[in-house]
Design brief:
The protein is of the alpha+beta class and 227 residues long. It has five helices and nine strands, in the order E-E-H-E-E-E-E-E-H-H-H-H-E-E. It has a domain of 80 residues. Strands 3-6-7 form a three-stranded antiparallel beta sheet, with no helix packed on it. The chain has a two-stranded antiparallel ribbon with strand order 1-2.
C-alpha cells in the first residue's frame, strides 16, 4: 500500500498551491508488527516538512502584504533577498526573508536607502514562543540535559543543548518576574477568567551537598526547579 500526503495552501487573494509533504509505503504480504501504523521517525519527518511549508507560505504572504504601501497603495521594491533561520517546535526552518524599501511617497529625510524586514518585529529572537515555553517547562521539571534529550526524541526540532534549555528557562522566569512586578505597581483591574492559557509558574530552590571526605575537595551547590 502507498499513501501520499499533500498540503493545499490558499492565499488571501485566492491563489491555491499544493505541496507534497511525504509518501508512505507498507507491504501487505508478510506485514510485520513494527510496520503497522506511522513510525516515530516518519512522523517527525512529515511534521518537519509540513512545518517548513506552512511557515514559508505564511512568511511569503506577510511579505507580499507588507510590500503594499498603506499611503499610496503602490508596491514597495525589495532591497535585497536573504534567508533567516527560525526555530519552531516542529523543526528549524530556513525561510526567505527579504528586506523591503520604504515607498517613495514617504519623507525619508537625509536618508535615501531605508529598508525594513517584516520578520524583525514578528520574531525578534528567531524562536517561536511555543518552543521557548516548552523548553522552559521541561527544563523546570527535569534536568537540562534530560529536557534536551526528551525534545530530541519526540520532536523534529533541532537538537537543543542543555545550555539553550537553561537560557530559555531563565528568560521565561525573568519575563514572569517582570510581569508580576509590573502588575504589582499597576492599578488593580479584575481580570476576566481565561481557560485557554493555564499559565506557567517557575520555582527555583537550592540545596547544599557536602563532598565525600577523600573523594572531592569542593562542596556542590545544586538547584532544583519545578513548574
Amino acid at each position: 500500500m502507498r499513501w501520499s500526503i499533500r498540503l493545499e495552501a490558499k492565499t488571501g487573494w485566492g491563489e491555491v498551491q499544493t505541496f507534497e509533504i511525504g509518501r508512505l509505503e507498507r507491504r501487505v504480504v508478510g506485514l510485520a508488527t513494527h510496520e503497522i501504523g506511522l513510525m516515530l521517525d516518519e512522523a517527525k519527518s512529515i511534521l518537519a516538512e509540513l512545518q517548513r511549508r506552512i511557515v514559508q507560505t505564511q512568511i511569503d504572504e506577510k511579505v507580499m502584504c507588507e510590500r503594499v504601501c498603506t499611503d499610496c497603495l503602490s508596491v514597495r521594491a525589495i532591497r535585497d533577498r536573504r534567508t533567516r533561520v527560525l526555530q519552531t517546535t516542529f523543526g528549524t526552518v530556513r525561510v526567505a526573508a527579504p528586506r523591503i524599501k520604504l515607498c517613495t511617497c514617504v519623507d525619508k529625510g537625509p536618508f535615501h536607502d531605508v529598508s525594513f524586514s517584516p520578520l524583525s518585529d514578528l520574531l525578534p529572537d528567531r524562536c517561536t514562543p511555543e518552543l521557548r515555553r516548552l523548553q522552559a517547562d521541561l527544563g523546570a521539571r527535569h534536568s537540562f540535559r534530560e529536557a534536551a534529550r526528551l525534545m530530541t526524541t519526540f520532536l523534529p526540532c533541532s537538537p537543543p543543548s542543555h545550555a539553550s534549555v537553561r537560557n530559555r528557562l531563565h528568560w521565561v522566569a525573568e519575563e514572569l518576574h517582570d510581569k508580576e512586578t509590573n502588575a504589582a505597581v499597576a492599578p488593580s483591574v479584575p481580570d476576566s477568567p481565561s481557560t485557554s492559557d493555564p499559565g506557567i509558574v517557575v520555582v527555583m530552590d537550592g540545596a547544599h551537598v557536602r563532598a565525600v571526605p577523600g573523594y572531592q575537595t569542593r562542596h556542590q551547590r545544586w538547584r532544583t526547579r519545578a513548574a
